[in-house]
Amino acid sequence: MVKKISLIFILIAFLFTSAAMAASPKMGGTLVFGRGGDSVGLDPAYETDGNSFLVCDNIYEALVAYADESTALEPGLAESWDIAADGKTYTFHLRKGVKFHDGTPFNANAVVFSIGRMMKDRNVKFVGKGWDIPPQERPPEYWVSMEMDDTIGSIEAVSEYKVVFNLKRVEAPFLANMGMDFADIISPTAFMKNPKEFLRNPVGTGPYKFTQWIKDDRIVLTKNDNYWDKKGGPYMDKVIFRAIPENSVRFLELKTGNIHICQFPNPADIDMARKDSNLKLPTQSGMNIGYLSFNHTKEPWKSNLNLRLAIAHAIDRKAIVDNIYQGMGQVANNPIPPTMWGYNKSVPGYKYDVELAKQYLAKAGFPEGKGLGEITLWSMPVPRPYNPEGQKIGVAMAADLKKLGITARIVSYDWGTYLKRQREQPDDMDLFQLGWTGDNGDPDNFLAVLFDGLASSSVRTQWHNEAYHNYMLMGKQTVDQAKRTKIYEDALQLIFDECPVIPVAHSTVIWPSQKKVMNFKLHPTGSVRMKNVWLDK
Amino acid sequence: MLSYILRRILILIPTLLGVSIIVFLMLQATPGDPAELLLGERATDEALFEIREHLGLNEPLYVQYGLFLKRLMKGDLGETIWTRQKVWVEVKQRFPATIELAVVALCIACFFGIILGIVSATKQYSVFDYVSMLGALAGVSMPIFWLGLVFMLIFSVNLGWLPLSARLSIDVDLEIITNFYILDSILTRNWTALKDVLWHLIMPAVTLSTIPMAIVARMTRSAMLDVLRQDYIKTAKAKGLSQFKVVFKHALRNALIPVVTTIGLQFGVTLGGAILTETIFAWPGVGKWMYDAVMQRDYMVIQGGTLLIATLFVVINLCVDVLYAIINPRISVQ
Q1: pTM above 0.80, yes or no
Q2: Helices B252-280 & B87-122 angle (0-180, nearest 10)
Q3: Contact between chains at A449 and B43 (C-beta distance less than 8 A)
Q4: Strand ranges for A168-251 from DSSP E
Q5: Over the stretch A109-130, which tens digit does the pLDDT of each residue have?
Q6: ipTM here
Q7: Nearest by CB to A245, which of B153, B164, B288?
Q8: Nearest 5°: CA angle at B252, between B247 and B258?
Q9: Contacts of B94 in chain A (CB under 8 A)
């Protein structure tokens, strides 16, 4: 009996230790990440493409950071921050003892330099001598398109570890913006050595440091042994980002074990990955929306709500998600993803109901489509994270509209022309597909940017609605998140009622990886963070 | 001879000027805008204006072309729109990869193509002739894209003999000097790297060689057949010369003229075909680079790259013409 009990104890103890061993990260190894293209550059202020940012994510850090699998804000290079009562002054208390990869210290001057170099009017103050920031090589695109010059008035280093941002206006998403890639902190010393070449010789404070770049082939990062956060990684010796343009070849490289993670595989390969015992499928709902919008600058779309509702109820979005997204997506009820705060759960989404659609169409004054004539349906020419095959989706939508008696002609251009002509809201555009991938997890970054046409002529939908515009203004100017949540929920209800766009789908991101890749988590913003990833031998 | 070569080099200047004007005008006529593509969905009017201003796209056409020419006179191909790098530097990084691939592919194509052509011609209407010409027909017709994937499935995935893609394994170190990896590994006496580089070259080079190989084989066969019917071949045979001497010394030399022209032209075709091969095999060369530039409307890359390829074409044509004179001394340079 005693023998039996002790045997059980030994067994339990063994199970516990082996479980603990499996869970404890192992040091060393090289991880190879396979992706579709090379990075353009590695200066976060000037990049616009995902392939550049996902390498920057491991070299640099910003003042605030996003949580592991959401956009909840956490301290980054700033340990804490205070917001003044008027909502216009942000004071960041910086982490001490952090060093850039070149050995220079991270401090308030580095923050002033990194952010200040993007400002049009360099309204900045350093502690002591500081730097004479060189003129911009080109406009920092993200900074300009996020209208940061209209938000930030001045940046001051108050002491070595304290920075104050004085805003021109109350801007609730400001803190979330400071977690984005463009707001990463760079080494001023490294930048000043050769400003023109910094994008090819990046120096930050992140868990991995830049080592080598063979254009269109690979970027090699090595472990930063002096990383400030001793709690987690970096665990691996090297991370290599390899460019393998062809999706099926990239997947074959994964299957044969030459790479560890395969970005954007063909949907058809996912099933094969599922059956492979050496692979697993990290999955994340993408922070994006693919939508179909109306041309709000022309009639009948501009003021005929019934017509818009008829189209909304005519389109079988579930069939589109099942067949064209091949299950890698979910039907959208709201134009923001369900993982985002401010999402309105009580909005049911437009039900696919041909009879109801026909009734709306008759009420709109176009019974069985009579009097509407042939309409154009602009369909996207390129796959985007939120829309895998625009033209196939266009054909499916046209077939759905045919059931109401509406004839829709598919129109498409090359991507640049599509974007350009769409902005001009031409008369030959009735319906158009487009979408968005979120930057910072703030609903303002979807709802104001995409639908508040009264705020700017750059808003692609050009929907002009006074009540909605007021919601957006309130949302920006209210700092309290609970109040903002309510504002955005109301705004989403208004969108559902007024139907300025038809939200089609949020895509799901699946990047198969080797089983031995541990702790790799996909982030809703699409960023790739290797800090806590380790390789099981 | 020397003055002829000099004259040909001088003709290069108006040729390239013409090429640059045509490319520039075609780019302007092509819809699409690099600023729109850089900013994508998030473009605002202000950001678009600023970036266009910075890139000089708001200037009138003749000013843009004038600036391009002015830089070109100084030997400067300008700076790329996307990667903010001197076009010349980008070229230096990528051209060696393509040239290495194309030259090896062309060598394979010539070697096997000429041998197949000769044997087919000397054994006309034999089983070998039918089989090799059928193979040549298949070689011309098979899309590189498909063939590359089939090779990968057979030789990498199933048999595990050859690496799938890239120029060099992740765990092999090579000090890069010229970007010609074969040369670099020889210069640094890094034999491990040399073996790895050659190993990586086999599959893409064979894939890329199929079309030129087929064309060279067919051309050699028909040229040889033509020559073998000539009287002097009969004389040679009547003299009692061995079959080997008749074919290689008397027939082949005369048959080679059209073949050399074909090979010269095929070099250009190989560079074109490299776009597909480079995409499938993740080969960091100039083909994929140019293709991306067209998709992204990176005008500077397209202009610079096209000029360079045009120069290469003209130089190869010149070499072919000079080769004529060497192969067949009866052709004198006028």
Answers
A1: yes
A2: 130
A3: no
A4: 208-214, 218-223, 238-243
A5: 999 999 999 998 889 999 988 8
A6: 0.87
A7: B288
A8: 150
A9: 215-216
